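ingest -> validate -> predict -> emit
validate: passed (alphabet ok, no gaps, 221 aa)
predict: started
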Amino acid sequence: MKGIKAVGFDMDGTFMRTHVDYSKLDSADRVVLQRHGVPFDEIDFGDSPKRPWAPIRGWLEAHGRGDEWPAIESEIDGLFTECECEFVDEAEPFPGSVECLPEIRSRGLKVGILTRGSLEYARRALGPVFDEFDVVMGRDHSFYDNAKPSPVAMFEFASELGVEPAEILYIGDNVTDYLSAKGAGAEFVGVLTGSGTREMWHSIDPDMTVIEKAGDVVDLL
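emit:
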């Protein structure tokens, strides 16, 4: 692929086989709001694939409780990270993931991880492989709503890598990965080791390049 200067990977389901209780993770914000007497079901979160946090802050401000937001934000993020790290010792790279890194570097390309997980979780899940990347960026790089599926995540990732979004080849297993990459103008490749099937990817884009596992990206370069 011409014009590519960096290869980026999603982590869970793409670069790594991980175990996360997503039902618990997806309810963490509700749990925290209930602790603070905030009526979760009265908040309009819109139709984003991932619930944003701005509506929570907006509700608090509208009800004269805006000063509570920093503590609630920190509490939600902490519970998210706790859920992510519950089974982190089971995390392991998919076959070919680690092995492809020197191949990518040999072509003069930078390499990074962009995940919706926290940086702490990524560090623990990747273990010694963490230092093999030029950039590892989690959802806590900036405000939560900038994380995938927002294209802001990809723009920030590109900035950290020192390239333009259009110069990134990004590999992911989930529609949130696709939305972030395409929204920023990055090249995207779907992988089959996680939640995305070949049929799903081609229903989104019939011309999408799909690979079996992340390490197969070297065949595209």
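The chain is about 40% helix and 15% strand.
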